[in-house]
Amino acid sequence: MLLPQTPEFSQEDLKSAWECAKDPEVLNAVFRYNRKYLHWEELRRRELPADPLYIWILMKAFRSKDEKFLKFNEILLKYNLLDDFSEKLHFLDKSAAGSISSGLESMNLEKDRFIINSLMEEAIASSQIEGAAVTRRIAKEMLQKRRKPRNKDERMILNNYLTMKDILRIKNRDLTKELILTIHRMITEKTLENPADEECFRDNNEIRIYDHRGNVLHTPPDYKKIDQYIDEFCEFANGKDEEFIHPAIKGIILHFLMGYIHPFNDGNGRCARSIFYWFMLKNDYWLFEYMAVSRVINNSGGKYKLAYQYTESDDGDLTYFLKYNLGAITAAVEEIIKYIERKQKENTEAIDILKEEDFSLRQIEILKSVMKKPQEPVTIKEITEVWNVAYATARKDLLTLEKKGYLIGKKSGKTYYFIFNGINKNQA
After folding, report:
1. Domain range 71-337, CATH architecture
2. pTM of the model
3. Relative to the CA of 182, which of 168, 197, 293, 374 has its CA 20 to 30 Å away?
4. Of 147, 156, 161, nearest in space to 191 by CA
5. What is the pLDDT of residues 225-240, one digit of tens each?
């Protein structure tokens, strides 16, 4: 598709638009579609009580009343804080405590596994957004079994996963040019056509963002200004704003800017989402350890890229990008809530079934996961990765389940693995 367009209009059009504003139906349409924050490309396809251009002119006029502005070098951005945003931000703030916090605490050892699983999901989806042609099942199996990547696409996913884990370690550091370059190296290692592009800003203006038909959607700023842009980017990320900006809003702005500046020859999208993840954790949004926002983005079709395009085509109006990403964050939080409810139910059922056994909650969960795929072997190394426990702990768990008759231990070469042995006859 071509880059979405917004119409130009004359003084005569402006005068006619305000004449139309005398009609209550017109004003109702203006306010209704501004609440939805429709782009011109969406608005012009609606049934409207007046010429779409006049409705658009009025919508833009009312939007301009409360706009906030941000300037980065030559990039001028603006945005509106919609009522919808306040609701979603309140939901996010509230979710870091209360029911989700207590729900996660009730999961005990399941929390560690949940974090690892979420990191895997985030790494896989973020890579798929950038074109990694690997199914979720194969990618997850590679990460769980610690199998070496077989190709560039699998390597992208492994890099993303290791980067996400490392961001948990460095989340309290300030953002610097050097840290951005380090994140880029971790994400792109052994995946670029030219290895010299790793950990290096682009030194050319040949980069363009195209659609599938070869139409140019975005031309990044001059490479000679990248250093200056990145300095301002870091200052914005680390500094306190003269006017308060909610951390989630600021994090999404950083996400957009990294994609817009496009400082690298490749890996910009993955780097942008990693920096957003870092920023939210740095600002004590611990819930993001459990969230796979990129999975929501990846499942939304082309809406993510369209949000970028709507912003760029409408004079740098970030509201479109903010609206989309806040929706994705909200959906990711709702996934966590559903997960907690399901796990609490499963844990209660599992404890009831195995209450006569002297199993830990983690051992029960391991057994349940093996029962879901009874034909697939499980190794000690896989348990250490999935559950984030020491090798000795994983070995003890599997041997305990083997001793009770739920698993059978086998050996293939130097690898010792376990398979499901059905329900223990003593418990049947």
Report:
1. Orthogonal Bundle (1.10)
2. 0.82
3. 293
4. 156
5. 999 999 999 999 998 7
